[in-house]
Structure formats: C-alpha cells, structure tokens
Amino acid sequence: MVVIYHIFYYPNLSYLANLSTFQKFTEFGRHGVPIFFVLSGFVITRILINTRENKNYFGSFYKKRILRILPLYYLFLIIYYYLIPFLSEDGQRVEFILRVPFYCYIQNMTDVFNIKASGPGHYWTLSIEEHFYILWPLVVYLVKPKNLVKLIGITIILVLILRYFMLNAGLPIDKFTFTRIDQILLGAYLAVLEWKNFFSDSRNVLKLGLTGVLVFPLIIGAYFLSDKFLMISEMTSQLLLGLFFFSIIGCMVFLKTSNFINRILASRLLQFFGRISYGIYVWHILVILILNRFFITEIFIVDFILPIILTIFIAHLSYKYYEKIFLRMKDQKVRSIDIRTLLGLKSKPAKIKEN
Known about the structure:
Elements: H1 2-9, H2 20-26, H3 32-50, H4 57-87, H5 96-103, H6 124-142, H7 145-168, H8 177-195, H9 202-224, H10 230-254, H11 260-265, H12 268-294, H13 300-327, H14 339-342
C-alpha cells in the first residue's frame, strides 16, 4: 500500500496528470502506516508480556531489536546521502548537520521544534517505532498486564488533548511521536486482551467486528467533512483508523489456523514478503527516486510495475546477504570464559566424557 502510494507521491512523469483519478485512489495507500502501527503494537506487547518474568528481559529484547533494525537503517542512510548529489538537479551534498536528526532518530520531531533536517521522508515512521521500542519495555515491566488497559486508555485521552493544543498552536501532529502513539497503543491493547483470554469467547470477537462496522462510516465522514470540521477531523481521524484496523486484526487473531484467511497468510509467498517487509519499506523510496531521475519510459504499466519489482528484488538481496548476518547474532549467547585459562594458568585441557 505504501509503496504504491509513494510511486505517485514522487512523480516525475508529466503524463500522470491524466491519471489524476487513479492517483487520488492510491492516496489511500498511506493508511498502510496505521496498519503497521497497530500490528506492531500488538506483536511487540505480546512478546513483552510473555517474557516479562525472564531474567534477561531487557537485554534480550533490545539486542534483538537493535540487530534487526539498526544495521539496515544506517546502511540505507549512508547510501542515500551518498547518492543524493546524483539524484538532485543542483548536485549538492546534504550537510552533515542536516543529517544528525536522522542519525539520532528524531527526524519526526524536527517540524515541531523547528530543527533543520534533510533525509528520506519515509523514515519518520521508523523514528516513532524506535521511540516505542525504547519506552514500552520499561512500561510493561513496571505495570502489570491487568493494569495496562487503564494506562493505555488514559494515554490515548492525553494524546487527543495534546493534539488539540498543538493544532491550536499551529504545530504539525501527523509525524510527532506523542500524537501518533495511540495507534500503537491500540495494538498493545489487543495483546492485553489476548493475555486475558478475550478471544476464547466468540461473543467478544463479535464486539470487535461491530467496532469496525461502527467506526468505518465515521472514517468516511471525517474524510469528506474535513473542510467543515477540520479541528475534529484532525484530532480523531488517526484514532478512528487505528480502531478500524484494531477490529480487523483482532478478528484475525481469533481465527483458527485452518481458516482460509490464515492459510493464505501462511503461504510461502506472503511469508517471503513478511521476511523482507522491513527492507521493502526502507529501500523503496531510493528505487523510486532513481527510476524517476534516470529511467522514465512513459509507458504507464512499466513505470508502475518496475519500481515494485526492483524494490522486492533489492529487499531480498538485502535480507539474504546483509540483514541475515546480524539476525544470526540474535540467538547467539556470550560464552563464559575461564579467566585462568585465558591467562594460561591451566596447562591441561579439561577431560570430556564421551556420551
């Protein structure tokens, strides 16, 4: 959804003006981000709740997140900044000071605090996600799962209040961590419901489905009436989207493994896309920019399909030959070292009994 949206968001194709209706339709692709936020909140909170009593709770979580995210994150930044002079008409390199927010994961806060920055525009979602990874493990550790529901509810209310004051102050709210965290928290709420065996009762799942049915017309109303009720629309639209995807994902959690939908999701093709999805998100902007700069065929189907195919191909290579190097380290344990052996004080190796 996001890749297709960005293909038309970064157009360098004059003939796309004749496809304005199709381009308008692809704008819905940006709602792939709320899906990602809700799903991420669910998966991460589920992991944290299940490992909360483990001795190496923090170390294991942060190690896995660091090895999964940071290597590709910084590799892409280096390549992106190196190629920028070739992709821009003026050929100017991005100054180091403008890169710093991206190196420090605060690129989504630059507009709010009036900090100058330049970098890949889609990286703001990764910034929000990283802030969640840093803060949420401590919250789950300190707050018992049964009390997380109250905390999540209070925080979502605070998010709405913060949106109101920021909008009144003329500040942007779309990419700011504390005005977009509600969607992730809705996913976290799903994980708590699962911990409480909520999905064991089919009547509860009907409630989730009803939530989605009731929220959907509100989303449509917020979209078409945004001009008349701008403040209300800006304050509630992301929360409503989050609730809609919350209900869909919740209903899917309830489904049995043998269900038709789950069989599709478990197919080799979608499992493959799941493995390389992070790479697809990271690399797709660079692919689109390069193609728009150097390879425009003015054949619609080619200009539309080629970025998708190339992105998948590069993401696959990235996963297989780069990311997997770090992923192998996730499950490696540091072996204890006998200090006397290290100093050469043991002259004979220990005997090993044959099994």
